[in-house]
Design brief:
Structural class: alpha+beta
Helix content: 25-40%
Order of helices and strands: EHHEEEHEHEEH
Oligomer: single chain
CATH class: Alpha Beta
Distance between the termini: 43 Å
Number of domains: 1
Mean pLDDT: 92
CATH superfamily: Gcn5-related N-acetyltransferase (GNAT)
Number of helices: 5
Length: 158
């Protein structure tokens, strides 16, 4: 299994992955095109035998000094093999903001456990966030700031 940057040529595979992982909450086509083409978005795919088996996207928001993990998905046939954890860590390594946030269904115990193991803490609950009115936990992790981050913060204030 390898992790690579995803691009527009991965649209069909990403759409399939979204459908099997999220069903009614799958992103619409226009959102998938946007996440694959927006220059600032960190978009990573997990590939095995030439097939996309996982995907993660992170949206850096320098003016808010935070990045949002927009989505993370692993094909159900490949889950419980550490692929989600690898994608999560790969996103974190590329983020230049000192914090990263995400939303997760309150009933997604497996994902919540993973995020907690990786150092995320629940900071808020967004009521009736999902299409079926299920609540979302908002989780956050403080990343180690590096010297480049200090200059980003300073430049954002100019």
């Amino acid at each position: 299994m390898e992790i690579h940057t995803a691009g527009l040529l991965d649209l069909k595979a990403l759409r399939r992955l979204e459908q099997i992982c999220f069903e009614k909450d799958a992103w619409p086509l226009l959102d998938l095109v946007a996440v694959l083409t927006w220059p600032e978005v960190i978009r990573l795919k997990a590939v095995e035998d030439g097939e996309m088996i996982g995907f993660a996207a992170c949206d850096p928001r320098p003016t808010q000094v935070v990045a949002w993990l927009s989505t993370i998905a692993v094909d159900p046939h490949f889950q419980r093999r550490g692929i989600g954890r690898m994608l999560l860590r790969a996103c974190e390594e590329r983020v230049r903001q000192p914090r990263i946030k995400l939303s997760v269904r309150i009933s997604n115990y497996g994902a919540i456990a993973l995020y907690e193991q990786e150092g995320y803490q629940t900071v808020d609950v967004w009521g009736r966030y999902y299409s079926d009115d299920e609540d979302a936990l908002i989780m956050e992790k403080h990343l180690q700031p590096d010297k480049d981050m200090r200059s980003v913060r300073y430049n954002d204030r100019l």
